[in-house]
C-alpha cells in the first residue's frame, strides 16, 4: 500500500467560483474551455457541505482542478452527458446522498411519488440503480474517459450484495458498471490522490493501492498472504503482516448459499477498523474484486479544511425559487461530526463512514453558524440542528489509541458500553454554550438522533440539552421493547430508555418546561416475531403513544440486518453449518403489514387484521373495550380508555432523508 498523506491540504491554487458550472454558458463565463473532472449526481446541485457532489467538487477545486456538475441528467440517451464537453481527467459518478433504490421505493417495494433531493420534491428524476446507469451513459458520451464511482450507492454495493428489490445477490457494482475504480466511504483522501496521479499521466484503472477504493484484478498479486474465509466451518486466523488479504467467498458461492452470504458479511464487518483492517478479495467469475482497507479517518484539522471550503450555501441559481425539500431540511443545520460507533445492525453508517468519530473544531463550527446567520436566506435566529449521524458522539473516542488500533468489536456500546470508551460530554456542552451565545442566534435545536444510552452517562449533558435545546419534543430511537429483536439490532434494552426518560422529565420539570419524549420503533426487523410486535403495541398503549406513521424495516445493501433477512442466520456471531442461531424475518407482505399494523393499533383500518392475528395467536383476550385490551371487538371508533386521556399522537415515519440517517446511509453521506 502507498502511504496515505497525513494532512488533507486544501491550498488555494485556483480562484473559487460562485457555483461549479452546470452549463456550457457558465463555463464560457469563467473562461474555461474544458473541465478536468465532471461530477454526475442523482441529486440536484446544492452547493453545501451536506451534499456529496459539492464537497468533492469544492475539494478538487481547492487543489486547482476545474470541476463541473451534471445534476439529475436525463438518462435515456448520452446527449445530456455531453453538455459540459469531455472531462480531461475522469468522470465522478454518484447516485447522490442516498442509494437510488432506497430513494425510489418504499419498504413494500412500491415506487415513491416524491424525491426530497429534487426541485419541487418531484419523483422520477433519477433511474433505478442510478450509479450503474450514469456510468453507462458517461462511457457512451466519451468512451475513453475513465469512470470513478462513489457515493453511498457505490459504498454499499462494493462487494457481492443482497438486493432487496430483485430479491437476489448481485455482483459488485464495480463490475456491473464497468467502472475504472470504485471509491467507498468518505472519499476526500482517495479522490484527491486519484486526481493527482491521473494528472501526472497514470491510468486510473492501474491505481490498485489507494485506501478506500475497490478495483478489478486478474489474480492476487505476488507477495500477498491470503486468509481464506470461503469455508464457514473453517474460519482461519488472519496472520499478522503488511500484505495480508482476506478472501471472501466468491460471488457465485454467496449467490447460491445464503448462510455463506451471512458468513461473508461477518468477515467484511470485522475488517472495518481502518487501523487494522486487511484488504478483501472476492472472486467474480474469472476476475477478482480487490477492496483496499478503509480510508484513514480525517483529523480535526482536515475536517475543518473540508467544511471551511467556500460553499455558496444555496441551491444552484438555475432552480430559481423552486423549493428543494432536502435543502429546506438542512439549510439551518450544522454538521459537527462524522461516523458512528453504535454499530446498529440495520444501519449503514458504519459501512460508509466508519466507527471512528471525526469531529470538527469549535471555531470551524461557530464560523459556520455565523455564516448561516449572515448569508443563508430566511434565517430567523434558529439553528435547526448541531449534529451528524448522532447528536452526542462529538469528540467521543477510545481512551487508548493502542487499544483502538487492534479492536475488532462490531459496536462500542453493545451489549454494554465499552470500558475503554470515553463518554465525557463536556466538549459538546461547551460547544452548545458557545453556539447559543453567538449574536443573532435565538435558539439551537438538536435534531439528530440522540444516543440516550450514552447521554445517561452525563447528567449534566441531559440537563443542558433539555433546558436549552429541546423544541417541545425530543425524538429518540429505542426501536423496540423486546429483547429478541433488540439483540439482533444491537440496541440497548428498555432499561436505558426508562433511565433517560426519568432524567429527561426531571430536567424538564426543573426548567419549568412541558416537553415530550417521542420514541421511534421499527416494524418487521429480523428476529421480530408477531408476539414481539404485540408486546410492543401493548407497551405503546400503556404509555399513551399513538403512532401516526411508522417505519418498516428496509433491507439496505450490505448491512448485517440485511444478511439476517436474506440468510436466516445471525452474523453477529460466527456462522456455522450447525449450531448457528437461526433468525426469522417477516418477509411476506401480509406479515410485514401485520407488524406495521401493531404499531398503529389505534387505527380502525388495522383492526380487522389485528383481530384475525390475535385470535390466531391465542390472544383473543386482548380484543375488547377494556383498558388492558389492545383493540375493540366491534367496528366503532377507537376507544379512548386504552390510550388514556391526553394520549400523545406522534409521527414515527422517517422521511427518506431521516431514514438515510438512521436505518441506511447517513443523510450527510458523501461520495
Rg calc: 25 Å
Q: What is the fourth-level CATH superfamily of the largest domain?
A: tm_1862 like domain
Strand content: 5-15%
Number of strands: 25
Description:
By secondary structure, the chain is of the alpha/beta class. It folds into three domains: 201 residues, 3-Layer(aba) Sandwich (Rossmann fold); 55 residues, no CATH class; 291 residues, tm_1862 like domain (pyruvate-formate lyase- activating enzyme). It is 32% helix and 14% strand. The strands form eight sheets. It has a ten-stranded mixed beta sheet with strand order 3-1-4-5-8-9-13-12-11-10, sandwiched between helices. A hairpin with a 4-residue loop joins strand 6 and strand 7. Helix 2 crosses helix 7, helix 17 crosses helix 19 and helix 20 packs parallel to helix 22. It starts with 23 loop residues before the first helix and ends in a 9-residue tail after the last helix. The N terminus and C terminus are likely disordered.
What keywords describe this structure?
24 helices, pyruvate-formate lyase- activating enzyme, alpha/beta, three-stranded parallel β-sheet, 32% helix, Rossmann fold, 671 residues
What's the helix and strand layout?
Blueprint: H1 24-30, E1 37-41, E2 46-47, H2 52-62, E3 67-71, E4 90-94, H3 100-104, H4 130-141, E5 147-150, H5 152-155, E6 161-163, E7 168-170, H6 173-177, E8 181-183, H7 188-199, E9 213-217, E10 225-228, E11 244-248, H8 251-256, H9 258-270, E12 279-284, E13 287-291, H10 300-307, E14 314-315, H11 325-330, E15 333-335, E16 337-338, H12 349-353, E17 358-359, H13 362-375, E18 382-383, E19 385-387, H14 401-406, H15 426-436, E20 443-444, H16 452-455, H17 459-468, E21 473-479, H18 483-489, H19 494-510, E22 516-523, H20 530-542, E23 545-547, E24 551-552, H21 560-567, H22 589-599, H23 607-616, E25 648-650, H24 656-662
Parallel strand pairs: 1-3, 1-4, 4-5, 5-8, 10-11, 11-12, 15-19, 18-20, 21-22, 22-24, 23-25
Antiparallel strand pairs: 2-14, 6-7, 8-9, 9-13, 12-13, 16-17
Helix pairs in contact: 2-7, 9-21, 15-17, 17-19, 20-22
Amino acid at each position: 500500500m502507498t502511504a496515505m498523506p497525513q494532512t488533507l491540504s486544501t491550498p488555494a491554487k485556483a480562484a473559487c467560483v460562485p457555483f461549479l458550472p452546470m452549463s456550457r454558458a457558465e463555463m464560457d463565463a469563467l473562461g474555461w474551455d474544458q473541465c478536468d473532472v465532471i461530477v454526475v449526481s442523482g441529486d440536484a446541485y446544492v452547493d453545501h457541505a451536506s451534499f456529496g457532489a459539492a464537497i468533492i467538487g469544492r475539494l478538487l477545486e481547492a487543489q486547482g482542478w476545474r470541476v463541473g456538475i451534471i445534476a439529475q441528467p436525463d438518462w435515456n440517451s448520452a446527449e445530456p452527458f455531453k453538455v459540459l464537453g469531455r472531462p480531461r481527467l475522469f468522470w465522478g459518478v454518484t447516485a447522490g446522498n442516498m442509494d437510488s433504490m432506497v430513494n425510489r421505493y418504499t419498504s413494500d417495494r412500491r415506487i415513491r411519488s416524491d424525491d426530497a433531493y429534487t426541485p419541487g420534491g418531484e419523483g422520477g428524476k433519477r433511474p433505478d440503480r442510478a450509479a450503474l446507469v450514469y456510468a453507462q451513459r458517461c462511457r457512451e458520451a466519451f468512451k475513453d474517459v475513465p469512470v470513478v464511482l462513489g457515493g453511498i450507492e457505490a459504498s454499499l454495493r462494493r462487494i457481492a450484495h443482497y438486493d432487496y428489490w430483485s430479491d437476489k445477490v448481485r455482483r459488485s457494482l464495480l463490475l456491473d458498471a464497468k467502472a475504472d475504480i470504485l471509491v467507498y466511504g468518505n472519499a476526500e483522501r482517495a479522490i484527491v490522490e486519484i486526481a493527482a496521479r491521473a494528472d501526472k499521466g497514470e491510468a486510473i484503472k492501474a491505481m490498485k493501492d489507494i485506501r478506500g477504493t475497490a478495483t478489478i484484478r486478474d489474480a492476487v498479486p505476488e507477495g500477498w498472504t491470503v486468509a481464506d474465509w470461503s469455508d464457514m466451518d473453517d474460519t482461519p486466523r488472519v496472520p499478522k503482516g503488511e500484505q495480508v488479504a482476506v478472501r471472501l467467498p466468491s460471488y457465485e458461492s454467496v449467490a447460491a448459499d445464503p448462510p455463506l452470504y451471512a458468513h461473508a458479511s461477518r468477515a467484511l464487518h470485522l475488517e472495518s477498523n481502518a487501523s487494522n483492517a486487511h484488504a478483501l478479495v472476492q472472486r467474480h467469475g474469472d476476475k477478482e474484486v480487490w477492496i483496499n482497507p478503509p480510508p484513514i479517518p480525517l483529523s480535526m484539522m482536515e475536517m475543518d479544511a473540508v467544511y471551511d471550503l467556500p460553499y455558496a450555501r444555496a441551491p444552484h441559481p438555475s432552480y430559481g425559487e423552486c423549493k428543494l425539500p432536502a435543502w429546506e431540511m438542512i439549510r439551518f443545520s450544522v454538521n459537527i461530526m462524522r461516523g458512528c460507533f453504535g454499530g446498529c445492525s440495520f444501519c449503514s453508517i458504519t459501512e460508509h463512514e466508519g466507527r471512528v468519530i471525526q469531529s470538527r473544531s469549535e471555531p470551524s463550527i461557530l464560523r459556520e453558524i455565523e455564516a448561516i446567520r449572515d448569508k443563508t436566506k430566511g434565517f430567523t435566529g434558529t439553528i435547526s440542528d448541531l449534529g451528524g449521524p448522532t447528536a452526542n458522539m462529538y469528540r467521543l473516542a477510545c481512551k487508548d489509541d493502542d487499544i483502538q488500533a487492534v479492536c475488532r468489536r462490531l459496536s462500542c456500546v453493545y451489549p454494554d458500553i465499552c470500558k475503554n470508551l470515553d463518554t465525557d460530554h463536556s466538549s459538546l456542552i461547551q460547544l452548545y454554550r458557545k453556539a447559543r451565545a453567538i449574536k443573532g442566534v435565538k435558539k439551537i435545536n438538536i435534531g439528530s438522533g440522540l444516543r440516550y444510552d450514552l447521554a445517561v452517562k452525563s447528567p449534566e449533558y441531559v440537563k443542558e440539552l433539555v433546558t436549552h435545546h429541546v423544541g417541545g419534543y425530543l425524538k429518540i430511537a429505542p426501536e423496540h421493547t423486546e429483547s429478541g429483536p433488540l439483540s439482533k439490532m444491537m440496541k440497548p434494552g428498555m432499561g436505558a430508555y426508562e433511565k433517560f426518560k426519568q432524567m429527561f422529565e426531571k430536567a424538564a420539570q426543573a426548567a419549568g418546561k412541558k416537553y415530550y419524549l417521542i420514541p421511534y420503533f421499527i416494524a418487521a426487523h429480523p428476529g421480530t416475531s408477531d408476539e414481539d410486535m404485540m408486546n410492543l403495541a401493548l407497551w405503546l398503549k400503556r404509555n399513551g403513544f399513538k403512532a401516526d406513521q411508522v417505519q418498516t424495516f428496509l433491507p439496505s445493501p450490505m448491512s448485517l440486518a440485511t444478511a439476517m433477512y436474506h440468510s436466516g442466520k445471525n452474523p453477529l456471531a460466527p456462522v456455522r453449518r450447525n449450531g448457528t442461531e437461526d433468525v426469522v424475518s417477516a418477509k411476506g407482505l401480509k406479515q410485514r403489514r401485520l407488524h406495521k399494523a401493531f404499531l398503529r393499533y389505534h387505527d380502525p383500518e388495522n383492526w380487522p387484521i389485528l383481530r384475525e392475528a390475535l385470535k390466531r395467536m391465542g390472544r383473543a383476550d386482548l380484543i375488547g373495550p377494556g383498558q388492558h385490551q389492545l383493540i375493540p371487538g366491534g367496528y366503532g371508533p377507537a376507544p379512548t380508555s386504552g390510550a388514556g386521556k391526553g394520549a400523545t399522537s406522534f409521527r414515527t415515519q422517517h422521511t427518506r432523508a431521516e431514514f438515510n440517517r438512521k436505518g441506511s446511509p447517513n443523510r450527510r453521506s458523501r461520495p
